[in-house]
């Protein structure tokens, strides 16, 4: 047993410079962005799904639309109906990204208060408490700036959520040893039941 | 390697589940009591290896160590790898619960085949030859797993040849690294504990006794007591 453990340590050392991380888990994140839905699709090792077709379904599974990601696995979709949506992308080799978006999260849907005589109604999500001194165009500019500022933060948050820490890995190893301990116990009991009584 | 939930057709999931249960049953029946600790260690090795990221060029790969598990454990690789996969799915969302059966078969069955093919030769060789054969077993196991993954996808509606090519070529770096690590591991085992590489004897702690024998024994115990 001690030698087997040594083996595990050696194997670990052979993979020099490796850090515990999750390879190749698919990540799909969706964010409200005014009246649009922004999304990012990629793998947890930082490789993004470039030029991938993302299919958009309603919750009953009927296909509504599709969009294609750009070179960074990023896409923007403007929903045409006020229903919850499910986004699905097939990245090949058994990797499928799926994420659901609740339409209520969109700040730009009907219900925002108009603060100024607007030209084209392209909704924004800043709300009305900015007062009449600010025009709709300015509101949109501010909203865009805030979104751009938040985007790296969102990405970092997603990456952080996907991080495997040593604790979980050690926990997993503990579970495995525990499970095999139980198997050992059962096997030993059966063996004793078979053994002639002393 | 780990197919995720939602990528496969229900028939494939059910088929994989049935095969995995059969493999698990066979693996547990063939598990001699003195191999249980080694099974646990190899299960943990697989669990950790799949979570370790090795940067290769622009991307990164992770080891699987299924070939080594097959060499040491034979059919018992099924329960060992199943436990690892189950915990990866639960803890890290790696793979998934509905595809657990398919993933177990895709990774464990090639491991078992690698064991059947190479174990006899490995156990009779000197450590250096054993290491080379062990490396081949490691690479072979990964290569066959890619074919199995492609078959699972093909049965769910993907075209087989492009899918198989894609998965196979993407995994060539892993096959190389895995072969080297398996070779090093087999060399170490052959040096320090060659008994691990001998074919397991078939007496098992899990074989059910015929009930008649059991009843006779209980009757004997009652009369003794």
From TrEMBL, chain A:
The organism's place on the tree of life at top rank: Bacteria
Source lineage: Bacteria, Pseudomonadati, Pseudomonadota, Alphaproteobacteria, Rhodospirillales
Protein name: Cobalt ABC transporter permease
Organism: Thalassospira indica
Keywords tagged on the record: Membrane, Signal, Transmembrane, Transmembrane helix
TM stretches of this protein: 169-187
Signal as UniProt keyword: yes
Signal peptide: 1-23
Automatic annotation (TrEMBL), chain B:
Transmembrane segments: 12-30, 36-56, 68-91, 97-118, 130-155, 167-190
InterPro entries (alphabetical): CbiM/NikMN
UniProt KW Transmembrane helix keyword: yes
Primary location: membrane
Gene3D superfamilies xrefs: 1.10.1760.20
Cell location: Cell membrane
Key words, A-Z: Cell membrane, Membrane, Transmembrane, Transmembrane helix, Transport
Keyword flag Transmembrane helix: yes
Membrane topology reported for the UniProt record: Multi-pass membrane protein
Database matches in NCBIfam families: PRK06265.1-3, PRK06265.1-4, PRK06265.1-5
Name the UniProt record assigns to this protein: Cobalt transporter CbiM
Organism (species): Thalassospira indica
């Amino acid at each position: 047993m001690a030698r087997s453990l040594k083996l595990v340590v050696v194997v670990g050392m052979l993979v020099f410079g490796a850090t515990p991380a999750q390879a190749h888990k698919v990540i799909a994140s969706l964010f409200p962005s005014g009246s649009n839905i922004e999304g990012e699709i990629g793998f947890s090792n930082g490789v993004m799904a470039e030029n991938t077709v993302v299919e958009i379904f309603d919750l009953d599974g009927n296909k509504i639309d599709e969009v294609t990601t750009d070179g960074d696995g990023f896409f923007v979709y403007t929903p045409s109906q006020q229903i919850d949506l499910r986004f699905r992308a097939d990245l090949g080799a058994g990797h499928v990204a799926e994420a659901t978006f609740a339409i209520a999260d969109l700040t730009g849907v009907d219900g925002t208060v108009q603060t100024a005589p607007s030209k084209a109604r392209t909704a924004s999500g800043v709300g009305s408490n900015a007062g009449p001194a600010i025009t709709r165009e300015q509101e949109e500019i501010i909203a865009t700036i805030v979104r751009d500022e938040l985007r790296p933060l969102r990405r970092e948050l997603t990456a952080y959520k996907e991080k495997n820490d040593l604790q979980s890995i050690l926990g997993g190893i503990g579970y495995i040893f525990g499970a095999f301990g139980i198997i050992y116990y059962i096997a030993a009991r059966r063996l004793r039941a078979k053994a002639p009584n002393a | 390697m780990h197919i995720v939930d939602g990528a496969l057709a229900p028939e494939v999931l059910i088929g994989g589940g049935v095969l995995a249960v059969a493999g698990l049953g066979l693996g547990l029946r063939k598990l001699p009591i003195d191999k249980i600790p080694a099974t646990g260690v190899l299960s943990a090795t697989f669990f950790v290896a799949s979570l370790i990221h090795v940067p290769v060029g622009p991307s990164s790969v992770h080891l699987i160590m299924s070939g080594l598990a097959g060499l040491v454990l034979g059919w018992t690789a099924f329960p060992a790898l199943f436990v690892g996969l189950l915990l990866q799915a639960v803890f890290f969302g790696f793979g998934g619960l509905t595809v657990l059966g398919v993933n177990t078969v895709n990774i464990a069955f090639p491991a078992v085949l690698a064991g059947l093919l190479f174990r006899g030769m490995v156990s009779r060789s000197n450590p250096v030859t054993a290491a080379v054969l062990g490396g081949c077993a490691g690479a072979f196991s990964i290569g066959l797993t890619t074919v199995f993954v492609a078959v699972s996808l093909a049965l769910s509606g993907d075209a087989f040849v492009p899918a198989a090519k894609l998965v196979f070529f993407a995994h060539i770096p892993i096959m190389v690294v895995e072969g080297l690590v398996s070779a090093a591991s087999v060399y170490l085992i052959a040096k320090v504990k060659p008994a691990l590489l001998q074919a397991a004897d078939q007496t098992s702690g899990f074989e059910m006794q015929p009930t008649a024998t059991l009843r006779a024994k209980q009757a004997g115990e009652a009369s003794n007591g």
